[in-house]
Amino acid sequence: MNTVNNDEVLIVHAGVHDTRDHIMLSKADIASFQKLRARIFSLIEKAIEKDGGHKSYEGQMSIDFPGYADDQYQASITLHCYVLGVGKHHTWSARNMQEALAKAWADVERWEAG
């Protein structure tokens, strides 16, 4: 796996033989993910203060890219969280990271609004 880093994007060459072999995260994507994570942690802290019950994995997050045979989505964000939203695990998948982030932000803002 080769990584190229410049001012605009981080490109990871995964060695795959098709058009998915270059995965790009812009600096804006990374900044948005960091802000999203901070917002989620703030909401988790409030939820735990209010209720007290939580799991050790609260707030574990990942950015995922497709496997070899998966061509439906190009980027996903996964959150493991018992105290926010419905369910314990949340995944936002889209054709690119900007769309996945937009989906995640929409849910987080909905959770924050109550």
Describe this structure in words.
The protein has 114 residues and is an alpha+beta fold. It has one domain. It has 2 helices and 6 strands, in the order βββαβββα. It has helices spanning 27-51, 97-113, and strands at 2-5, 9-13, 22-26, 60-64, 75-80, 89-94. It has a 3-stranded antiparallel β-sheet with strand order 1-2-3. A hairpin with an 8-residue loop joins strand 2 and strand 3 (22-26). Helix 1 (27-51) packs parallel to helix 2 (97-113). It is globular. Residues 11-20 have low confidence and may be disordered.
Short summary:
This protein is an alpha+beta fold. The chain is built from 2 helices and 6 strands, in the order βββαβββα. Helix content is 37%, strand content 27%.
Distance between the termini: 42 Å
Mean pLDDT: 80
Please state how the strands of the largest beta sheet are arranged side by side: 1-2-3
Proportion of residues in β-strands: 25-35%
Rg on CA atoms, Å: 16 Å
Any idea how many domains? Answer: 1
Count of helical stretches = 2
Helix content: 25-40%
